[in-house]
Amino acid sequence: MDSEQQQSAIEGAKVLMVGAGGIGCELLKTLALSGFRDIHIIDMDTIEVSNLNRQFLFRQSHVGQSKAKVARDAVLKFRPDISITSYHANVKDPDFNVDFFKQFNVVMNGLDNLDARRHVNRLCLASGVPLIESGTTGFLGQVTVHIKGKTECYECQNKPAPKTYPVCTITSTPSKFVHCVVWAKDLLFAKLFGPKNQENDLNVRSSDSSSSSEQVEDVFEHKNGEEIEQYARKIFDHVFGYNIELALSNEDTWKSRGRPRPIYCKDVIPTEHVHQNGNQGRGSAAGDMTSVSAMATLGLKNPQDLWSLKENAAVFLEALKLFLLKREKEIGNLGFDKDDQLAVELVTAAANIRATSFGIPLHSLFEAKGIAGNIVHAVATTNAVIAGLIVIEAIKVLENDVKNYRMTFCLEHSSNKMLLMPVEPFEANKSCYVCSETPLTLEINTRHSKLRDLVDKIVKAKLGMSSPLIMQDSTLLYEVGDDLDEGEVANYAANLEKVLSELPSPVRGGTILTVEDLQQEFKCSINIKHREEFDEEKEPDGMVLFGWTQAQAAEKNSKVSADNGASTSGASEAASTEPEDDDDLQIIIPPPVSGRKRKLSDVTATSGVPSAAKEPKIKRKAEEIEGESDIVMLDDGNKVKKGEA
What we know:
By secondary structure, the protein is an alpha/beta fold. The protein is about 30% helix and about 15% strand. The chain is built from 18 helices and 19 strands. The chain has helices at about 5-10, 20-35, 65-80, 100, 115-125, 165-170, 175-195, 230-250, 265-270, 270-285, 295-300, 310-325, 340-355, 365-370, 380-400, 450-460, 485-495, 575; strands at about 15-20, 40, 85, 105-110, 130-135, 140-145, 375, 405-415, 420-425, 440-445, 470, 475-480, 510-515, 520-530, 545, 560, 620, 630-635, 640. Strands 3-2-1-4-5-6-8-9 form an 8-stranded mixed sheet, with helices on both faces. α2 (about 20-35) links the parallel β1 (about 15-20) and β2 (about 40). α12 packs antiparallel against α13 (about 340-355). The chain is globular, with a radius of gyration of 26 Å. This is SUMO-activating enzyme subunit. Belongs to the ubiquitin-activating E1 family. It is found in: Nucleus. Keywords: ATP-binding, Metal-binding, Nucleotide-binding, Nucleus, Transferase, Ubl conjugation pathway, Zinc.
């Protein structure tokens, strides 16, 4: 296709972007400057302060506003002659159905979680619209092309479990201990000891501040003459008490999740006890700088012990006082260092107190240190590179240039003098239950397990269905939807509490269930195999599903991205097997090229794009190294760590 025909294809295309975060901002800008004239963008998220260092379409004045709308307005200022339609909404809303997707020539994802990615993948398959996926983690990135009947779909390969988290989860609705660690390290520690002019998403307005006051008093400011013990207690009460109560005032947030518990200092440690420890802190602070430790002051010796709430509160107060007493000159320029004992103590204690508020299991200092030391920050340049690669692949799709489609991987270290590694796409996995409709097999105790167990643990959590319908032959066992009458709703609710073998149409070994999501227009079959017993440790769900692309559990010792991506799905991370950010997707380093039978074609790429045969071989380690999960070795000795979902 010559340049005029190419430009005509670009200008006549109608494209959909899902996500307006780190990748989304760069992608929208690049699409507009490349000549695309009809762009639609979906994002349910609002702008946070922490987005501003890499999402360059946003400014301080935009904080709290819709990402999709602000991004649209920003681009229209320099490209007023094009059409950009923004939707401040969840991509899983019923309005965005198959018919909606059919109007587009190509869909481009800049998402931050696996659940939404799977949803869009299925809508693209059902509508026959090409999908271009992407993700970044630090210096790593990837772009993949998914076209029904020509390449594998997004769910043809295993996806590592989520390891990255949106800032809204960190600040408002943590559900895992790692969320609390990120909050304590990147928000609280930075606010207490980092540059004073540095803004983040931690509320600084005290309960005493007047809403009409023009000058908001910063509760984190240590006033002249203010007792150190009084200041430490004030900080404790603000972040673990008042801020939790402030969050509870938004009733909508807690309709479908557990409410956190505010914790105040007086309820954990009496004033007299705080004064006693404060005196001990002054004694310890007089020693060598390297020996300063709240644990030593309080007589806590083993870093692998789990501290009680009272011990965590004592460590937090003592560590804060020691910073103010012994390391006052460093305050204002301190950054978290996993080798700084006092910093690790404060972050561990703060994370555990916050975890207590939200009903999350506590962790030892040893475990918290491992989590806090593995955080990967987003890199704006990587987002820009990936956005450019998305547009390149989108143009190929519009030209129907099948032989030159590429999955491209952005590496941190060069391999064969390349930082960008293009690989030919693979054909659909014939065992994929999504695009190849291969039946699944479920081993389950049909005499003990309820239909609710099947729906929650398999249909929603593993198969990613939002509005499932379950049938056995012609009998409808379960359905959700707004069009059901009260009798149907009551009937299906009653079925949920019934054991499988006691349903109106009993489910036993040999039964074949049909499970369907009408919004996704996705259907699959599940062969039921009765099994009496399960290993509680290895099979905690009490059932085992075969034939699906199982996520690899990698929560412990995993890397966590501090980026905040474009959140377009409201699903919880636990329910989606997900992940989640910068628009962070897990980085899937491609398997060995030689001998691969699932290659789309053996066509050699045109000059300028290395063929798959010329790509460096990539070897997967057979075993995970503890603390170094998902390591991939390149032949030249470089290590590439896979990123998040």
